């Protein structure tokens, strides 16, 4: 909803584009610093989802409703919610144009538009998702279908895919595969399933530290791992998934492979949102071009980025947002005061890899190093990490992250490292 305040006040000290985890988190931080009404947040959707919970929803371990809240109840007090969508960025004039035609100006802006699911980039996938046997934990409209399909599965190939593009939560396709294995065993039909994890990567996971542990999980569960495979088409009438085989450079080799399926879980290609891709903020990949340490736009110093929409080298996870918020909170405040940004984002990301219905490998890392929080062996599947994934992290998200109170686990990690050295 565009409130009456916006109709008369089309200029904001700070404009936040996007009402996901990053947008709400940064808005919450700055509404505590700026005068009431001087911050606007643009977000078209009425429902806000705790997306890290989708893996558990698809596994029947949580409900979709428990991972959904109304956006109107999450907008921080003092901020103005503009329930619309940005169509055009005009950074040279410090304005954006909304879908409804309204122009909004700003003094400073944070872009937190997230990443878009592109099922349309796979031929036949959009239509296939509406047919039996095809599902995806990535979409709130299909995540419950995954659990239904797993519970109805009788025999055949169960295929889980990983695309040849950037993707949010790169561990999610594996999580869905492992949970499915557990459910099929509980149902007594696992021996009738040939489970396949088909990834575009050259290995099972992008972070070497966790590769051996995950290879062991796949081996113990008799899951066939097919590397350098990219899903390009779904043929619904005879239930075939068509993959292109990739070379070492991740480019197509011209060779394809057809695999019949009874169950197909599609992890979609992802891109930056179209208005961002076509803007002066984007690099050649379409993602927001920022300094990877300060998260400041390389070309427009009054604009910062948060979350998955940026071209930073970190994995695109909700956990990354916590440290993004800490960095932008400090650096944007510096810029507002006429100083240079100095806080450096450490590249932190986390992926709680659910390997069964009650065990998790808690992966924490940056592009350059492992950043585990606890003194325990987090590469070992554990029940305590599952309890954290299931019960603690959702509360941390709703009560901490989007409220601007959680800046990541660096303080806990530093204390943990002291314990390790003693």
TrEMBL record:
Q: What class of enzyme is it?
A: oxidoreductase
Compartments where located:
Mitochondrion
Identify the GO cellular component terms for this protein: mitochondrion
Report any one BP term from Gene Ontology: sulfide oxidation, using sulfide:quinone oxidoreductase
Judging by the UniProt lineage, the source's domain of life is: Eukaryota
Entry-linked InterPro entries:
FAD/NAD-bd_sf (IPR036188), Sulphide_quinone_reductase (IPR015904)
EC annotation from Swiss-Prot or TrEMBL: 1.8.5.8
Q: Which GO terms describe its molecular function?
A: FAD binding; glutathione-dependent sulfide quinone oxidoreductase activity; quinone binding; sulfide:quinone oxidoreductase activity
Catalytic activity line of the entry: ubiquinone-10 + hydrogen sulfide + sulfite + 2 H(+) = ubiquinol-10 + thiosulfate; ubiquinone-10 + hydrogen sulfide + glutathione + H(+) = S-sulfanylglutathione + ubiquinol-10; a quinone + hydrogen sulfide + glutathione + H(+) = S-sulfanylglutathione + a quinol
Which SUPFAM superfamilies does UniProt cross-reference here? FAD/NAD(P)-binding domain
Keyword DNA repair, does the record have it? Answer: no
Q: Which cofactor does it need?
A: FAD
- Annotated keywords: FAD, Flavoprotein, Mitochondrion, Oxidoreductase, Quinone, Transit peptide
Which family does the similarity line name?
Belongs to the SQRD family.
The task this protein performs is described as: Catalyzes the oxidation of hydrogen sulfide with the help of a quinone, such as ubiquinone-10, giving rise to thiosulfate and ultimately to sulfane (molecular sulfur) atoms. Requires an additional electron acceptor; can use sulfite, sulfide or cyanide (in vitro). It is believed the in vivo electron acceptor is glutathione.
Q: What is this protein called?
A: Sulfide:quinone oxidoreductase, mitochondrial
Instruction: Give the source species.
Output: Caenorhabditis elegans
């Amino acid at each position: 909803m565009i409130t009456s305040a916006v109709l008369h006040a089309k200029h904001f000290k700070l404009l936040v584009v996007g009402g996901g985890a990053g947008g709400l988190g940064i808005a919450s931080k700055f509404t505590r610093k700026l005068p009431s009404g001087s911050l606007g947040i643009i977000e078209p959707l009425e429902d806000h989802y705790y997306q890290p919970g989708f893996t558990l929803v698809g596994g029947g371990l949580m409900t979709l409703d428990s991972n959904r809240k109304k956006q109107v109840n999450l907008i921080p007090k003092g901020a103005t919610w503009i329930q619309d969508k940005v169509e055009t960025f005009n950074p040279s004039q410090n304005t954006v144009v909304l879908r409804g035609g309204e122009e909004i100006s700003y003094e400073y802006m944070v872009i937190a538009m997230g990443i878009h699911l592109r099922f349309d980039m796979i031929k036949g996938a959009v239509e296939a998702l509406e047919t039996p046997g095809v599902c995806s934990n990535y979409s709130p409209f299909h995540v419950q279908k995954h659990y239904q399909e797993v519970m109805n599965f009788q025999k055949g190939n169960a295929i889980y895919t990983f695309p040849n593009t950037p993707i949010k939560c790169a561990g999610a396709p594996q999580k869905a595969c492992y949970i499915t294995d557990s459910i099929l065993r509980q149902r007594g039909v696992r021996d009738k399933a040939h489970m396949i994890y088909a990834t575009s990567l050259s290995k099972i996971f992008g972070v070497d530290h966790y590769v051996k542990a995950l290879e062991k999980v796949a081996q113990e569960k008799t899951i066939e791992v097919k590397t350098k495979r990219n899903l390009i088409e779904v043929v619904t009438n005879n239930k075939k998934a068509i993959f292109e085989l990739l070379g070492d450079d991740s480019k197509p080799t011209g060779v394809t492979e057809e695999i019949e399926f009874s169950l197909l879980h599609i992890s979609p290609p992802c891109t930056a949102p179209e208005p961002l891709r076509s803007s002066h903020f984007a690099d050649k990949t379409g993602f927001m071009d920022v300094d990877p340490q300060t998260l400041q736009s390389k070309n427009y110093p009054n604009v910062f980025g948060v979350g998955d929409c940026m071209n930073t080298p970190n994995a695109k996870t909700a956990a990354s947002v916590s440290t993004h918020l800490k960095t932008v909170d400090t650096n944007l405040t510096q810029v507002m005061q006429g100083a240079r940004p100095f806080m450096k984002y450490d590249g932190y990301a986390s992926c709680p890899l659910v390997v069964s219905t009650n065990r998790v490998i808690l992966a924490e890392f940056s592009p350059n190093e492992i950043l585990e929080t606890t003194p325990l062996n987090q590469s070992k599947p554990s029940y305590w990490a599952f309890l954290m994934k299931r019960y603690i992290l959702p509360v941390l998200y709703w009560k901490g992250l989007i409220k601007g109170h959680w800046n990541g686990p660096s303080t806990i990690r530093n204390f943990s490292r002291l314990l390790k050295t003693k």
